[in-house]
């Protein structure tokens, strides 16, 4: 009897290298299209394309979002796809896979960011070559380019490690992302409150004037370097602070902290997986006294109830997070010796933050509205039943949109009523009631077509952002802007309906 020969470590490395490269090449393509294509499209379709290239603004928005999406996929994708038993059978594959996920994930985020910065650096020379008679533009020096690339590399590495470690034991990508967002938001909330408390008697406070302070914040500065993406705030903490830390202190703390996170990621990626064996558990005893409600007589009521149960956790989490963020800002403002807020201003600010968070909620609800129904097992099951796919889509789509409008539309009306000034937010106030519907429709379309959380979120974000920016830039009249956004929403909804009804997807 011959026993199967175990594969060599070289074969394991080669197989896993091919696997991670194959998976991340599509992430890289999606991120490249989002990071480079969106600002390039906006710059070329602008009324004055020779003014500037929105590269720095895009980088600031792109880096945290892209890092979050890629890291939560690295943390939970193997578990959600049930491919962990395959990795367990290969010798040393768990730690090798964790290391490759870290390397390829960070590179997938950094390469598009580097490309955007390179285009930003070359844009003035390119525009001067296109139009030699144009006025000189502000140039991006090579030193600034290198500094931006270095800072982005350190920030992406930091956020990726924190998100992947926090979501290590999550069952799927969505849960990993939610756990990481809640934990990191809480960390930075405590950081901000502690910072304001330490400098409450100084002239250097959030929203106030910058002045020299004698408060010793050297230990706090080191703590900031260990935070997820904390290098962004280190300079603000150390601004006009005396005495200063040695030059090597902050880099040393950064390396030690994130070295520990990397070790935890490599070690506990395998510990979280286990041995991949299924344990037969005894079925729980039947509760003879239990009573089930009778089935709903209306199919419409049943689908609406199902959609409400699926969207409710996201809506509640967004509402709690927005109210908590607003309460924290109001609490911080109270520390300012010359500023106080009334209850009416506090309520108005809370309602404004809640109404502004509708974009995040619309993206998450849109992606998650059909994600479970379009999974392989559930999709095959319900399509084998006498259910009209078109009506199923319409009811679920309208139920999710109605829930968003009911919760966040009420908050927007409250903000308008409580505030002494009109509730304003760029780029145009009159498109705010319609813009969340664009985000929601784009997210639904991306979810139906892609059927992968990470790709659907990136695609929905890029499409909705591009549509809103193009309409506000190219269309002048407010009524025409609203009509154009509604037309785009209708077009994306019809496309999603056709894809859902005919079971079209890129998978």
Automatic annotation (TrEMBL):
The chain crosses the membrane at residues 59-77, 98-125, 145-166, 178-198, 245-266, 314-336, 348-371, 392-415, 427-446, 453-472, 478-500. It comes from the Bacteria. Keywords: Membrane, Transmembrane, Transmembrane helix. This is ABC-2 family transporter protein. It comes from Pseudobythopirellula maris.
